[in-house]
Every structure is written in structure tokens, then in C-alpha cells.
Design a protein that fits this description.
Blueprint lengths: L2 H26 L12 E2 L9 E6 L2 E6 L4 E3 L5 E3 L9 H23 L1 H10 L3 H6 L6 E4 L3 E2 L5 E2 L1 E4 L2 E5 H9 L5 H11 L48 E3 L10 E6 L4 E6 L3 E4 L5 E14 L3 E15 L8 E10 L7 E6 L4 E8 L3 E2 L4 E14 L12 E16 L4
Parallel strand pairs: 6-10
Antiparallel strand pairs: 1-4, 2-3, 4-5, 7-8, 9-10, 11-15, 12-13, 13-22, 14-22, 15-21, 16-19, 16-20, 16-22, 17-18, 17-21
Helix pairs in contact: 1-2, 2-3, 2-5, 2-6
Length: 410
């Protein structure tokens, strides 16, 4: 979606989203007994944009955008200083409204389905406490990277009474109608102070009932004609992954087929290299193999592939260098690799690698599309050994433009 169109749509939907969220907040405000007011303690008070500051909860250290001021009350609950600009605007209201809408469906699942009631019973969940997390005052939206206690870039961080979400990641989830109810539930659990490491509690919601799902796409699209639709040719469910950048754990790599444009998107959340005060070099790799089944007298044509990523460095005069290598080919053929060198001194920017030479399969039958990549981030000669804030290089998305043509077509 083009940025200006997205902004117009967000502005139009913000009022509706705010009304929905406000209603949810009204229903949930009295579900937790707040007790006597406690004097808050300021944990972080940095104000420099783009830097990350450490935030520790129960022995876990997270890195948050430096402009967020986190306040902890004596009862162990957290909040954001509302006087600080979160740098998102009306889009944040829409995202919070959508997050709450999915959360309300999760509550419905827990209260009114047999599977949900069994989950509540077996895990001894406090549903009222979970309801109380769905409050716009406990949801904060930011544009900048969020890094969890393991050093991974994540799309949300949940701590008691507070959920912080990354705007780009959640807009992408909502626009693509992804089955992310378990991710919402995961953050609700953490906000309710329930341990959900490795999704031990939220995992059953990976198969969320279709009858309870709600539409999240801003502008629904019409699918292509049957003869132009490639959904039966591309076996997304059989995608094979390998490498440290795309471990096959089922939660950090999303595949989406746009049925109005015949584009395949592979979106990554763990394909990240990071330098800190101790690491002088970091590298990740990802190998993807996608099975293709072609009708008789038809061939697959890949007309364009985009590799999109992001760098983030707040180190003045950084001499660190990043390198991205990418190759794409159909089984049985050879294609040259592309290499991109990136100077990290540029701050926070996105990058794009575009493969334009055509890939064309044999006629009919089975084929394999292979997408191989790796990223390396390394301190340059003379680079200071201490980095107060990490430098990050990541691949976020690979987009493949596909079509099927007659074998006799010239």
C-alpha cells in the first residue's frame, strides 16, 4: 500500500478505532482492583531519538527506543509517561484498536468454547486479568526497533500492565490477514504477568477457530480470474527452510500470497545481525526451497525479486560495514549471486536489492524455486570496541513476482 493512501485510510479509520478501543477500555477499567495509589519510580528518561536504552524486568533486559519513559509503581506494574511523543500519530490509534479487537475474540474463545475453557482450567488462567490488558492506556505503539532479552528484534514486548508494539510489523500482520491470535494472546499473558516463554500457554491458539476470526485488512482486494490465479501452483505449505536466519519454528517467518497481484512475500523477524560491545562480527544465512507444480504445457516465469531490509546505527562515525548476498534460481539452472555492501554510518535506513533477470522453468511438471541469502555485519578497522547501542542489519522481506505462461509463448 502506498504511504499516502495508507495515511488517508488511517485517518478515516482512526475515529472508529478510537471509539471501539474506548468502549473496550470502559468495560475493562474496573476488572482489576488497583489498590491504593503508589508513588511511581522513573526507570528510563532518555530523550535522544534512534538510540536504545536497557529496560530490565524480572532479570530480562530489553532494548527500547530511548524516547520512551517507563514508570514502575511499587506494586510491580509498568506504564508509559503519556507526556512523551511516541512518534506514530493516528496510525497508532488504528493499530491499538485492531489489537484490542483480536484480543476480544480471544476472550470470547476462552469463555465460550470447549477448547478455550479447557485451556483456562488446565493453565489456571485469570480471564478477568486478561481482559484488563485490552486497554488503550496499556498499549503503546512505536516506529523503532524493539529488541528482547535474547537479543532478537521482535514485533512486541509485554511486561506487567504494559504492551509495546512495533507499528510496521503489526500493520503488515493486519493488512495480510495473518493468523496472529496466538501472538496477541502471548502479549496479553505477559501483560497479565503470566509466563509464556516459548509460547507454552499461547501455542494452542495457533489454530484459532475460523468462525471467531475478524477482518483486519484495511482495503479488501479482489482475487484474479481463475486462469490467472497461482495459489494452486505454489506450495507455500511445503516451503523448506534452513539456516540461522530462518529457523523453522513456525512463528518467525510468514509466507503470504497476494492473489490480486501474484506476488509471494516471505517476511522475516529473526533474520538479524547485530554488533554490540563484545561482538566484532555477526552473520546469518537463510536457504529457502519452494515446490512448484505446473500444469501441462505451462511454465513458471519469475519476472522480478525484491530483497528488502533495514539498518539501524546510532554510532557517530561508525566504520562498521554490512554485506548482503542473494541468489535465486530454479532447480537445474544456474544464476549469478548479487552482493550489496552497506556502510552503517548512514544511521537508520532501509535498503533494496532488485533481481531483474528472468527465471523460467521447464514446461509442466514439478520444479523447485530456490532463494539463498546471507548477511554479515562487521566492525571496520579502527572501530572502537565499545558500542553503547547495538548496530543492526536485517533482511525483512523477499518479494517474488510470478506468472505462468504457455510453453509456446515467445
Amino acid at each position: 500500500m502506498k504511504p499516502h493512501l495508507r495515511n488517508l485510510i488511517l485517518a478515516a479509520t482512526a475515529i472508529l478505532a478510537l471509539a471501539t478501543a474506548a468502549k473496550a477500555a470502559t468495560l475493562n477499567d474496573n476488572l482489576l482492583n488497583p489498590g491504593l495509589p503508589k508513588a511511581p519510580t522513573v526507570l528510563n528518561s532518555g530523550t535522544t531519538p534512534l538510540k536504545k536504552n536497557p529496560f530490565t524486568v524480572d532479570g530480562r533486559t530489553y532494548l527500547l527506543p530511548d524516547y520512551l519513559k517507563i514508570i514502575k509503581s511499587e506494586d510491580g506494574k509498568f506504564s508509559i509517561d503519556k507526556k512523551i511523543d511516541h512518534k506514530v500519530g493516528n496510525g497508532g490509534d488504528y493499530l491499538r484498536g485492531q489489537f484490542i479487537a483480536l484480543g476480544q475474540q480471544i476472550i470470547l474463545f476462552l469463555e465460550e468454547t470447549e477448547d478455550g475453557q479447557n485451556l483456562v482450567s488446565s493453565r489456571q488462567l485469570n480471564v478477568e486479568a486478561l481482559k484488563s490488558t485490552l486497554d488503550i492506556n496499556k498499549l503503546t505503539v512505536v516506529q523503532d526497533l524493539l529488541i528482547d532479552n535474547s537479543g532478537s528484534v521482535v514485533d512486541a514486548i509485554g511486561v506487567p500492565d504494559l504492551i509495546i508494539i512495533n507499528a510496521d510489523s503489526w500493520m503488515d500482520h493486519f493488512e495480510r490477514e495473518r493468523n496472529i491470535y496466538y501472538l496477541v494472546f502471548h502479549e496479553m499473558l505477559r501483560s497479565a504477568a503470566i509466563n509464556d516463554d516459548n509460547y507454552v500457554v499461547s501455542q494452542p491458539l495457533m489454530n484459532f477457530p475460523a468462525a471467531l476470526k475478524v477482518r483486519t485488512q484495511l482495503v479488501p482486494t479482489l482475487p484474479l480470474l481463475d486462469e490467472d490465479n497461482l495459489s494452486n501452483i505454489i506450495a507455500r505449505g511445503s516451503l523448506q527452510t534452513g539456516g540461522t536466519g530462518c529457523t523453522n519454528n513456525g512463528s518467525r517467518l510468514f509466507t503470504d500470497m497476494n492473489l490480486s497481484q501474484n506476488t509471494l512475500d516471505l517476511t522475516f523477524y529473526d533474520y538479524v545481525t547485530k554488533l554490540n560491545s563484545t561482538a566484532a562480527i555477526d552473520r546469518k544465512a537463510c536457504s529457502l526451497t519452494l515446490p512448484i507444480t505446473l500444469p501441462k504445457n505451462k511454465k513458471l516465469v519469475v519476472s522480478l525479486i525484491d530483497v528488502q531490509g533495514q539498518i539501524d546505527s546510532s554510532v557517530a562515525g561508525s566504520k562498521s560495514l554490512g554485506r548482503v548476498t542473494f541468489e535465486a534460481f530454479l532447480a537445474g539452472t544456474n544464476q549469478p549471486s548479487q552482493v550489496k555492501q552497506i556502510a552503517m554510518a548512514q544511521g537508520k535506513k532501509s535498503f533494496l536489492m532488485r533481481k531483474t533477470n528472468l527465471l523460467s522453468s521447464a514446461c509442466g511438471g514439478q520444479s523447485l524455486l530456490r532463494l539463498n541469502s546471507n548477511i554479515i555485519l562487521q566492525k571496520g578497522a579502527g572501530q572502537v570496541s565499545q558500542l553503547a547501542n547495538p548496530e543492526v542489519l536485517q533482511i525483512k522481506k523477499i518479494r517474488v513476482f510470478l506468472s505462468v505462461e504457455d510453453c509456446t509463448q515467445q
